[in-house]
Amino acid sequence: MTVAPTSRKKSTAPRAGGIRGAVSSPIAHDSAYKHTSGAALYVDDIPTPENCSHVYIAVSDRAHAKIISADLDAVRAAPDVVAVLTKDDIPGKNDVGPVVSDDPMFVLGKGGGVVECEGQALFAVVATTMDAARAAAASAKITYEDLPAILTIDDAMAAKSLLEPPYKMKRGDVKRAMLASPHQLKGRVEIGGQEHFYLEGQAALATPGEDDDVTIYCSSQHPTEIQHKVASVLGIPYNAVTVEVRRMGGGFGGKETNGNLPTAVVALAAKLTGRPAKIRYDRDDDMIITGKRHDFRIDYQVGFDHAGCIQAIIFDQAARCGHSHDLSLSICDRAMFHADNCYYLPNVLINSYRCKTNTVSNTAFRGFGGPQGMVGIERVIDEIAFHLGKDPLEVRRVNFYAAKGTVSDRNVTPYHMNVEDCVIDKIVDELVASSGYASRRREIAHWNKNQSLLKRGIALTPVKFGISFTATHLNQAGALVHIYTDGSIHLNHGGTEMGQGLFTKIAQIVAEEFQVDIDRVKITPTNTGKVPNTSATAASAGTDLNGMAALDACKKIKKRLIDFIAADWNVKPKEITFLPGSIQSGKNKISFDDLVAKAYMARISLSANGFYATPKIKWDRKKGIGRPFFYFAYGAAVSEVVIDTLTGENRLLRVDILHDVGKSLNPAIDLGQIEGGFAQGAGWLTTEELWWDDRGRLKTHAPSTYKIPTASDRAPEMNIAIWDRGRNPEETVYRSKAVGEPPLMLGISVLMALSDAVASSNGREAYPSLDAPATPERVLRAVSDGWE
Amino acid sequence: MRDQLSFYLNGELKTIRDAPPTQTLLRYLREDENLCGTKEGCAEGDCGACTVMVSTLASDGSVKREAINSCIRFLPSLEGTSVTTVEALSETISAPHLVQQKMIAHDGSQCGFCTPGFVMSLYTAYRNGDALPVKAANDVVAGNLCRCTGYGPILTAAKEIGDVAKNADQSGDNKIEYDQLSKINHQENIVLEHGEAQAFLPATSDQLAEIYTEHPDATIIAGATDVGLWVTKMHRTLPKIIFLNRVRDLASMKRGKNELIIGAGVTYSDAMDALASAYPDLGELVRRIGALQVRNAGTIGGNIANGSPIGDMPPALIALGATLALRCGSERRTIPLEDFFLDYGKQDRKPGEFVEAVRVPLAKRAGDFKCYKISKRFDQDISALCGCFNIQVVGGVVKSARIAFGGMAGTPKRAAKVEAVLTGGAWTQESLELAMLAFADDFTPLTDMRASADYRLRTAQNLLMKYFTESSAPFEQTRLVGHGNAFL
């Protein structure tokens, strides 16, 4: 095996002679020093206010049960208890659901209640310490009557337990094309869920104010929704609630809706007791109470020709949504939107079943259903290749959407959107060459012939990911920019920082626009009082939306400054240019600071808000037709693995990635998203296994039992590059592309490489049908063709 | 006798008289000292966000610096040590420590929540002058989970930190540390009282024997890598505790002519090299127990004494024919290790009796012993099963076979039926296949979150096949990680 040094290529060099932190420069995360020195504050690090109480939420340990009786006297009488909260104490609405009102804040009230999953909140204890609150909660005497529980996708499909009737997307004549196909295959793939495992658990601090007011500090990707849920629970208008988020210790979708419960509970505690109140889930509670990535069962039937070109395909996607809606409908939609990945499906039917089960309500997770949909089609391609005895890469290529700029009818998606920006063919060609795919494939086949116990495998998988919220109205954002009279800049916008570098990128945009060093731009916490009515920082759209809104705000102020100084200098506004640190027109020149001071004296407003709404998109969900996405992000990965055919243990050996981020706003941050996303995707499909017992209780609720990748799981050789020809054909901020979610799906190459390795084990005739996560157990089962 | 704790925190002497014996170092730092740079990510020693450096004075007068998980380390166990947290590394943004500089330069942080832990793991390695090529760096940070970066940037930073550390002159810092530790070094017994709770910190095993005879209801804690979780996860109160951290004579290792005697207080980290040189596979097994922070705290004696059915040391040591030295007051006895494990959660230990040492026989042919840890993840994971084989073949015939497994029963257990089938028979594929069938007679494993019963049984059988392949086809590639693997 050849070994090259590990590399991470930053494709854009910093610009010489300009400002510090310009757009496209690979500057470090704005909080990097604070991260490394422990000075970065997370919610639990904020100095606890005087008289602050601590809240503990007592949860159900049954999957489905009626509460026959509940005696909380001992809880109330326990030492240091300030209050005990049940649904009877809620002045407003007993609900924390993000879209549909089916997520009660507390199940328990005077009339008892029915629990619908393990980990559902029953009541809460407010005490002077967290230990006291927890200990008191344990003294509740609750008797249940168990009800029949639907735990798995199979259970739900058998019982037709669905959140809504099955939803379809279709195009072409599937039945006829299937019958006419020279080859047909049927199969099933099961894909496990995934725990977010953000390092910082859910946390919130609420401080009561005057009148109805309450101020919240929390770890949330969606401060506006927190504001709405708090107001709804307390029965007060939105304007009484202020929510602030400086940063999260990781989010990954797990803090899009799952902060609603703990935050609403502390807000209620604060208002009812008149004291500040704080909550922090410990790791086990966090993993038991919060939703996860949906597990899927995907059945497929495909017709194809001798070259492997797909003629007709039917997917039945069944997802485990849990006991309530949360964001499941949109997530399942996105799984359908990505059932094609990079491939043209001429005749296609996608059926989606949203299973209601007595398990935790599953939620957003990086990719938002897209990854599961994509595993489905990659699995189909892999099986077609096995069936035809071809290299799966060959089959992938014959099915690609028509390349950008070519005249072809092979560019329509199953939801009738034209793919106009397809660059996957170019990316794959470059990656095949740079990774030495062809020669390595030959070398691996040779190696495998000479080994009896270990087998290696290799796979290249592509990614095409649709960018925009598919709920069109969410594609809007606001920003607020002030310049103070000393020339320092205050930046605020609706996006939240969870480590993805959003704040850094937007500060770069502001610095670039005003041509000042980025150190001038003060990044401030997301706050519902500064920028209202925001969307969640999600769908990879944080920079696309908030960056454009910030740009809009900058342009407004800039126009005022230009008009002012142009009049002062008696020149035309278009003759004014912003140079690094100064503004110039011909021989006239003034420093940025002086201009600002001068403008202030002339009574020019130095503050502006900005707004952005994504153009071009529309989606008719009833008809399943439209353009839900502004554009697509592309990428591809080659992974090489080795398996042990006696134990199923497996290891990643080498990864090559080429990913399209358009014109990068910050190559350092984008590379971080690419590698981190890949690792998270690879972890999802290999070591990360969620395991429930037969009573629906999660038994993998801490890192001792739930295994995310650790350093040595990283391939010893990783070559990651930003595609240097990338440029967004749509008018996004500086022609960049979203990067948060797409790279996660590069991890699918690992599952397919494992499938390749299993297929190489001795004497194989049947397709491996390797399910995810590919733990040693699943790999061994695949090697052994099952073992019953 | 003293009634207070003394330790240094970021260079400042702390004396504490009235601390709850099970207060964790992490909570002390965050709640009492307002040092919130150190984070809680899991409260079970698995994520490393709470990593700090603990320096102690070793019996040879050297200073030992180790990264540990502060979330499961009880405050009294810090007696006589110096604790360094992330806050001590730099005071201003203009003068970051090298470790911070490299982490920043290579974009080693994203959300930043795990970062202080990584910084402290790397800082400890730096202070020890460790070179950190990728394999060494993997081991240094295996106990630190990051969910954002995918680790590449951190490993790049680590390599450059190691390149400087190898040649850095740290004698100034080391001298200050040595002088401070010397000031609080003493041999007196310490007893702490907090309300009803009591904590004993004996300095010698004689003191320990005496205290434990008097208080047989006390819980003995060495590294707290297991007992720590009784408090942080099960929320149990432990009214009476004896800490072993100061008992230096239990923390020693002796190499006899035919055996290695490992004191009950010897940590995995301290034993690793000796075990690896005696049996390469045993060294690799120890490398895969927990991660560095856990191995720096956890002891081999503790791994045995707590009787866990999934501890990794017992099956290996049973396969090697190790014996256990127990002491109660002045009485001592030695028993075969396998006899110590009576049933699930039950060991052959009298009230007041404690594990003094484990004696590991040394073999001439170290390669006869092979062991295989099977888990979902290679590093920092608990075994689904752990198979340990010690088979002597002479002239094509199996002379003796000791095979022991963890994860296959309620206790670490020998595969007696498999051994019987093998012993005296020919060492061939045919006899092997017969022996594999006998596993079903020896074990009825459980299905749980780590693996199904089917997988455990099938893999146990396959591991015997793997042992056979390794001993009969030495050029075959059989290992994915650790020594003897063909990959990086």
List keywords for this structure.
heterodimer; A: 788 residues; alpha+beta; 8-stranded mixed β-sheet; 5-stranded mixed β-sheet; 19 helices; disordered N terminus; B: 488 residues; 5-stranded antiparallel β-sheet; 20 strands
What does this structure look like?
The complex is a heterodimer of chains A (788) and B (488). Chain A has 788 residues and is α+β, with helices and mostly antiparallel strands. Chain A is built from 19 helices and 30 strands. In chain A, the strands form seven sheets. Chain A has an eight-stranded mixed β-sheet with strand order 4-6-2-13-10-11-12-21. The two termini of chain A are 37 Å apart. Residues 1-6 and 11-15 of chain A have low confidence and may be disordered. Chain B has helices spanning 25-32, 98-105, 115-127, 134-141, 152-165, 171-183, 205-214, 227-232, 268-278, 280-287, 292-297, 300-305, 313-319, 337-340, 416-422, 429-437, 439-442, 453-472; strands spanning 5-9, 12-16, 51-57, 63-69, 82-84, 190-194, 197-201, 219-221, 240-243, 253-255, 259-263, 323-328, 331-336, 341-343, 346-347, 353-361, 369-374, 385-394, 397-406, 413-414. The mean pLDDT of chain B is 96. At the A-B interface, α1, α3, β29, α17 and β30 of A face α2, α3, α4, α5 and α18 of B.
Any chance you could write out the topology, listing elements then pairs?
The complex is a heterodimer of chains A (788) and B (488).
Chain A (H helix, E strand, L loop, with lengths): L6 E3 L22 H6 L15 E7 L5 E7 L1 H5 L3 E5 L27 E3 L5 E7 L2 H8 L3 E6 L6 H7 L7 E5 L2 H7 L2 E9 L11 E6 L5 E5 L4 H12 L6 E5 L14 H14 L3 E4 L2 H7 L6 E9 L5 E13 L5 H10 L10 E9 L13 H19 L3 H8 L24 H12 L1 H13 L4 E14 L8 E8 L5 E5 L8 H13 L6 E3 L2 E2 L14 H28 L7 E3 L2 E4 L2 E4 H10 L5 E7 L4 E3 L4 E3 L3 E14 L5 E10 L7 H19 L31 E6 L25 H12 L16 H8 L5
Parallel strand pairs in A: 1-30, 2-13, 11-12, 15-16, 19-20, 29-30
Antiparallel strand pairs in A: 2-6, 3-5, 3-7, 4-6, 8-16, 9-14, 10-11, 10-13, 12-21, 14-15, 17-28, 18-19, 18-25, 22-23, 23-24, 26-27, 28-29
Chain B lengths: L4 E5 L2 E5 L8 H8 L18 E7 L5 E7 L12 E3 L13 H8 L9 H13 L6 H8 L10 H14 L5 H13 L6 E5 L2 E5 L3 H10 L4 E3 L5 H6 L7 E4 L9 E3 L3 E5 L4 H11 L1 H8 L4 H6 L2 H6 L7 H7 L3 E6 L2 E6 H4 E3 L2 E2 L5 E9 L7 E6 L10 E10 L2 E10 L6 E2 L1 H7 L6 H9 L1 H4 L10 H20 L16
Helix pairs in contact in B: 2-5, 3-5, 9-10, 15-16, 16-18
